[in-house]
Amino acid sequence: MEHFLYLVIITLAVLAIIDLMVGVSNDAVNFLNSGLGSKALSFRTIMILATAGILFGAVFSSGMMEIARSGIYVPSMFSFNDVIVIFLAVMMTDIILLDIFNYFGLPTSTTVSIVFELLGGAVSLAVYKIVTNNDSWTTLPNYINTEKASEIVVSILLSVAISFTLGMIIQYLSRVIFTFQFDKRDKKIRFFFRGDCIGVDFLFYPHQRIKICKFY
To answer: Which of 141, 149, 142 is nearest to 118 (CA)?
Structure first.
């Protein structure tokens, strides 16, 4: 059993390194596409800011660790071996999923992927335990932290809807302000708009990313 544990730890470490490489490449596209595409700053400066933002987020991402520990499933319903199986499944699925999305150039979220992989792995193992132990299917909610999991899923869906709606409204207003008679607009308006963009981004995403807003 001790040798098996060492093998599992080594496997998890290797998968974590691979997953980090795949995940960072995906996040790098999300972080850098706006800055590099608009040429707001030099490539070196953008890379320094993005690296600092990712490092800051990785150090202070305690909320994500809490979700992995007890936010999705009920730890008392699973043994140590069960939890290891869930984590192995999550790591392998995350690598395959992100690699496929990166290969086809499709946008995705590493955080959302991890959450749903944890939920899927926990539900699958719970179903396996119910079948093998001949338990009642009514015990399935006992394995999953349904209240927290539902809250997380609803929050993800709401964030997509709210982001789309607010993004559409702000984009429309910015086009109205800056597109028509652009040369006659006071330059101070642009500075306020830039400050609002950066301020809102730090307010809602202080531990995830740093964006640079620049308008011509």
So the answer is: 149
3-state secondary structure of 144: strand
Per the prediction, the chain carries an average pLDDT of 75
Beta strands in the chain (DSSP E): none
The four Cα atoms 98, 102, 104, 109 give a dihedral, to 10 degrees, of 60
pLDDT at 124 over 50: yes
| Cα–Cα distance, 5 to 7 (Å, whole number) | 5
| Cα 51 from Cα 196, distance rounded (Å) | 23
Q: Which amino acid is at 1?
A: M
The pLDDT tens digits of the residues spanning 27-84 come to: 666 667 777 777 777 888 888 877 787 777 767 766 666 666 667 888 888 888 888 8
**What was the pLDDT predicted at 198?**
61
Given a contact cutoff of 8 angstroms between Cβ atoms, the answer to whether 198 and 210 are in contact is no
Give the integer Cα–Cα distance in Å for 126 and 55.
35
Name the maximum alpha-carbon separation found in the chain: 76
